[in-house]
Amino acid sequence: MTLQETAGNEIAALMAEMPHWGSEFDRTFANHAPMVLVALARIGGKPHQLRRFFSYYRDTKKLLPFAQARSHLTVGTWTSRLGERQREPELRLFFLGEVSRLGIDGALRRYLPRLAPGIAASAFHALMRTAYGVLEQDPDAVAIALGYWAATYLPLPAATGERPRTDDPAEVLALTAEIAPLHGLPLHDLLWQNMRDAAAVPAFRPVVDWLEIGPDTMRRMAATALALFAGTQHFAALHALTGLHWIRLVSPHCDAATTDTMLRVFWQGIAALMGELGFPVLPEASALDRWRHLPAPGWADIHAAAAESYDEHDISLAFSAFEEMAAYGDPLYRVVAARRLGMIGDYR
Questions:
Q1: From 27's CA, which of 63, 106, 232, 289 has a CA 20 to 30 Å away?
Q2: Handedness of CA 162, 167, 169, 170 (dihedral sign)
């Protein structure tokens, strides 16, 4: 069921306003509103809650109007503008034409192979916008997201085909924590800048090849991301958890090789945030098992609390954790969402 079907014409009108606002605001922070309004509706948010959230978000973040395109790009020229934020209007216009021509599935299958190596774009928020466009089956939202992905494209060191060291995503994070030069890097406010700086460290370059990608990799990444967030409750770990939900939404529109690339580079990006995370050690399996059996509110109560929040990440997590628990069956998703919303104490 789409947002319009869920929340009615009034909210559809609110969503129709979203393309008029910039994809980013001050210092390239990502505008979450187009995606979080969808999440808010899907967790049961009422029209007045959606309007209230957007009014607060627009005014607090000082959202900027989206600029107009000044030229046209073609199939032969669009890649020349990868990573150029100031050319997002032209890239958006190009992808609006391509999604109109090819459809959602056709455009994703054609263009994600080229965009997948830059999945760290805007610290995965371009991926988020793409996933929510797919979720809503909204061609314009998908096109806008692809233009945003191209404009904020963030290349990390490319895979070389070297033999993997492990099939365990958690081990990749542990090995990354042993890279001494990462421990001295200054931290920025923006996640994508910390990923960029870690990626520039020569000793970090082999990380992309360390993980063996197989049929079970996405599930194992999801379990590791959940453990990482459960053990840290960190903002960056939240993006690991939600980001895997977004990949799961997009992957049916990719071939296997593109999905593998997205997973490999996504996890490389998470590894690049180990400094931001404080180089944590993942909780022991016994601790995770104890936490997942803690009493916690039901999803209806969690979603009701999230719908009252003005924090975009509360809403994003409440929706993604619910969806990931439905996919994987781990009740720890409910516990960590309740903890994020202050509905239970710090179980650590």
A1: 232
A2: negative
Percent of the chain predicted with pLDDT > 70: 97
How far apart, in Å, are the Cα atoms of 103 and each of 64, 88, 107, 191, 253? 29, 21, 6, 32, 11
Q: Tell me phi and psi for residue 76, to 5 degrees.
A: -85, -15
8-state DSSP, 25? E
**In this model, does residue 228 exceed pLDDT 70?**
yes
28, two tokens = 């390239």
Query: Using an 8 Å Cβ cutoff, are 237 and 277 in contact?
Result: yes
Structure tokens at 181: 């030069």
Name the nearest CA neighbour of 152 among 90, 88, 200, 94. Answer: 88
Measured between alpha carbons, how far is 168 from 203 in angstroms, rounded to an integer? 20
* Joined tokens for residue 313: 């990440």
Give the integer Cα–Cα distance in Å for 187 and 220. Answer: 28
The full DSSP string for 193-250 is: HHHHHHHTSGGGGGGGGSBPP-TTHHHHHHHHHHHHHHHH--HHHHHHHHHHHHHHHH
Give the span between the Cα atoms of 107 and 92, in whole angstroms: 13
Average pLDDT of the segment spanning 311-329: 98
Residue 323: other Cβ atoms inside 10 A: 18
CA 2 distance to own-chain centroid = 20
Rounded to the nearest angstrom, the gap between the alpha carbon of residue 3 and the centroid of all alpha carbons in its chain is 19
Residue 124: what residue type? F
Q: How far is C-alpha 232 from the geometric centre of its chain's CA atoms?
A: 18
- Confidence check: pLDDT of 155 > 60: yes
Asked if 126 contacts 152 with a C-beta cutoff of 8 angstroms, the reply is: yes
CA gap 49, 165 in Å, rounded: 48
Picking from 144, 145, 147, the residue whose alpha carbon sits closest to that of residue 130 is 145
pTM: 0.96
Q: Evaluate whether 265 touches 116 at the Cβ level (below 8 Å).
A: yes
Q: Are 209 and 161 in contact (CB under 8 A)?
A: yes
pLDDT surpasses 70 at 13 = yes
